[in-house]
Specification:
Order of helices and strands: EEEEEEEEEEE
Strand content: over 45%
Mean pLDDT: 96
Shape: globular
Number of helices: 0
Distance between the termini: 40 Å
Length: 126
């Protein structure tokens, strides 16, 4: 069993920054690709960014390219999401998730991720 715990959310003004963390309190994520997703009420969960096992390959949604940066520290079993230049439309609950494939990669589809954190709220005021 894997338990993922997100932290770092909060309320910031437009243009500000936040750094989200996703730590595995049980199980491991070091041999799995990871992803960050976000969801607003009444909408489907959407892909934000994914990162490969080594961290050498990343894939960003167009809406966050150039503003968000994903990274990971496998020794700490933790993935990070640095969010800069935040906009009101970035307001959402942010979730991290572990890819279902050992060592392999996952696409942007939620169906390819099997373990999810509880989410952390990010609110951007205009």
């Amino acid at each position: 069993q894997v338990q993922l715990v997100e932290s770092g959310g909060g309320l910031v003004q437009a243009g500000g920054s936040l750094r989200l963390s996703c730590a595995a309190s049980e199980g491991t994520i070091s041999s799995y690709a990871m992803g960050w997703f976000r969801q607003t009420p009444g909408k489907e969960r959407e892909f934000v960014v994914g990162i490969s096992v080594s961290g050498g390959i990343t894939n960003y949604a167009d809406s966050v390219k150039g503003r968000f940066t994903i990274s990971r520290d496998n020794a700490k079993n933790t993935v990070y999401l640095q969010m800069n230049g935040l906009k009101p439309e970035d307001t959402a609950v942010y979730y991290c998730a572990r890819c279902r494939y050992y060592v392999g990669g996952c696409s942007s589809s939620t169906r390819e991720y099997v373990y999810w954190g509880q989410g952390t709220q990010v609110t951007i005021s205009s």
